[in-house]
Every structure is written in C-alpha cells, then in structure tokens.
Automatic annotation (TrEMBL):
NAD-dependent epimerase/dehydratase domain residues: 10-232
Gene that this sequence comes from: fcl
Protein name, per record: GDP-L-fucose synthase
Catalytic activity, as annotated: GDP-beta-L-fucose + NADP(+) = GDP-4-dehydro-alpha-D-rhamnose + NADPH + H(+)
Protein family per UniProt: Belongs to the NAD(P)-dependent epimerase/dehydratase family. Fucose synthase subfamily.
Function: Catalyzes the two-step NADP-dependent conversion of GDP-4-dehydro-6-deoxy-D-mannose to GDP-fucose, involving an epimerase and a reductase reaction.
C-alpha cells in the first residue's frame, strides 16, 4: 500500500493577475502541493473579516501574496488614493490574518519602485529609504514599502518566516494591455499590433528612446519567487538581514527604450518607421536592479527579451478579443 503524500496547502493571492497566474503555473504540477485560490467574487481581499474567516477555515500552510492594484504612470497619477489604500489594506489583511492563524511561511511581492528616484545604479537592496521616491508612483511605492516592513515586523516580533521579493519591470502572459493604464511593454505591443493591422506608416514612441530599462519575463519572476520561498531558513537568513530582508529579482541586464521598441516592432512584424517624440518626457534615465544577492542564492533568469516578447505576443494574439470589450 502506497503512502499518501501530505500536501502543502498554498494560497496564491491574486492568482488571476500576471504574476499570480505564473506562480500557479509553476506550482500546479507539484505532487506535494494543493493550490488554494479565490477570485474577487469569492473573497474580497479588502474585507478584513472575510479574509480572517478564509484563513480560519482553510488551514493554509504557505502564502504567495501577489494580489495588488497595479498600473502604469497614467493610472498611478490618476488614481493615487486607490493605489495606496487598496494595496495597504490587502497587505494588512492577508499578512495579519496569516499570522493570526499560524501560517509560518509567506512571500510578499513588491516592486522596484520602492527605491529612490535618484538611487545609485544598479539599485541594491540597501538603497531602500535612502532618498525621495519618484513622485508619479509614490503612493503605490509607499504601500509596497509598508508590505516589506509588515513582513519584517512579524518576523522580528513573532518569529515568522515572511519574505519579500522586489521584481524589476515585468511583462508576459496575462499582462494588462489597456491603451492608457498599462505599462510600457503591453502598451507598445498593442500599439505596434494595431498599427500593423491598420497599415500605418509609423508608430510614435514617447521620449528620446535613450532611457535604460530592465525587463523580466513573468515566468522567470514566478520561478524566482518559488526559489526564494523554498530556500531553507539558514540559507535565506545568511543572505539577508532582519531589517533588510527583501531580495531584488531581475536580469541584471538593461537596454534602451529604443532597443526595446525596435525589438518589439520586429516581433510583432510592424514594418513601418519607429519615431521617437522628444517633446515628451523620458522619465528616469536608468533603472537597473542589483541582483547579486539573488545570484548568490542560486537563481538566474532564463528568458531573454526577444524570446519573452515572442511568447507574450503569441498569448496576446490568442486573447486579443478580450481586450476590446
């Protein structure tokens, strides 16, 4: 008679989002894992009582906290109150309820925007709280910093093992392709695709094209998240500090916006001209993560930009009808 496998019950909060769905893909074939998910109609993460009841009833062993309100510059500028309020409330509800119901292991997903606008490049974990944040997404960044500090505080006071990972710019399957509220890669992918379909002669990209950015394919982010979550405590603690516990996740490689846009045109098959409107703002000259800590912990990215864009575009083509609703 075969022994039955005792499965860990893992709650992936935000499982329909880009990162959460990628984490589910990473975990779904594990024989020792039972994935627990709830959509918004089943569990409102902004409702403290509902979240507490969920944890009281579900016997969760681990949590991946990938739920968040996210968006590009336009969305952050337009809805700052929603960005700070909703992210703070979700983090507080999930992290506190996890602790209250004796969940020992949790991974919080943050963002590279936690670092100061003028942080030294590449940005190391120690840059946190050393300068002024980028004003356009400061409310979101402050909420994410609060999430890191929540994890550190429960670790320090209660001996929990709550960890945090800070991804660079992400893209991939299940991204938001809204024409106004999305990030640069999905926004440009949609624009290049629609220009190709319309037979346009050119696509205009804001700025000079000279700023440097780092991009990470979302399945790599999910793999890194699982890797960090599954490190034994001794290894993790040896590579972090009690009040500097977050770990950067990225490629450690950047490119210009011009290079990214030209690669995008190639992937999409747009044969017109890519024009840069230098009257529009460029934003920060460079944003690159120092990923040496993660490298020391044994993880490195696998998917380069062109391959990742091709995978993303294939998914976009298969799902584009959903973006027009």
């Amino acid at each position: 008679m075969e022994e039955s496998i005792v499965k860990k019950r893992i709650f992936v909060a935000g499982h329909k989002g880009m990162v959460g769905s990628a984490i589910v893909r990473q975990l779904k074939n594990r024989a020792d894992v039972e994935i627990v998910t709830r959509d918004r109609t089943e569990l409102d993460l902004l409702d403290q009582k509902a979240v507490d009841t969920f944890f009281a009833n579900e016997n969760i062993d681990e949590v991946y906290l990938a739920a968040a309100k996210v968006g590009g510059i336009h969305a952050n500028n337009t809805y700052p109150a929603e960005f700070i309020y909703q992210n703070l409330i979700m983090e507080c509800n999930i992290i506190h309820s996890a602790h209250k119901h004796d969940v020992q292991h949790l991974l919080f997903l943050g963002s590279s925007c936690i670092y100061p606008k003028l942080a030294e490049q590449p940005m190391s974990e120690s840059a946190l709280l050393t300068g002024v944040l980028e004003s356009t997404n400061e409310p979101y960044a402050i909420a994410k910093i609060a999430g890191i500090k929540l994890c550190e505080s429960y670790n320090r006071q209660y001996g929990r093992d709550y960890r945090s990972v800070m991804p660079t710019n992400l893209y991939g399957e299940n991204d938001n392709f809204h024409p106004e509220n999305s990030h640069v890669i999905p926004a440009l992918m949609r624009r290049f695709h629609e220009a190709k379909e319309a037979g346009d002669a050119e696509v205009v990209v804001w700025g000079t094209g000279t700023p440097m950015r780092e991009f990470l394919y979302v399945d790599d982010m999910a793999a890194a998240s699982v890797h960090v979550m599954e490190l034994d405590s001794e290894t993790y603690q040896a590579n972090t500090q009690p009040m500097l516990s977050h770990i950067n996740v990225g490629t450690g490689v950047d490119c210009t916006i011009r290079e990214m846009a030209e690669t995008m045109a190639k992937v999409v098959g747009f044969e017109g001209e890519v024009v840069f409107d230098s009257t529009k703002p460029d934003g920060t000259p460079r944003k690159l993560m120092d990923v040496s800590r993660l490298s020391d912990l044994g993880w490195r990215y696998q998917v380069d930009l062109e391959v990742g864009l091709r995978k993303t575009y294939q998914w976009f083509l298969a799902n584009q009808d959903n973006f027009r609703k």
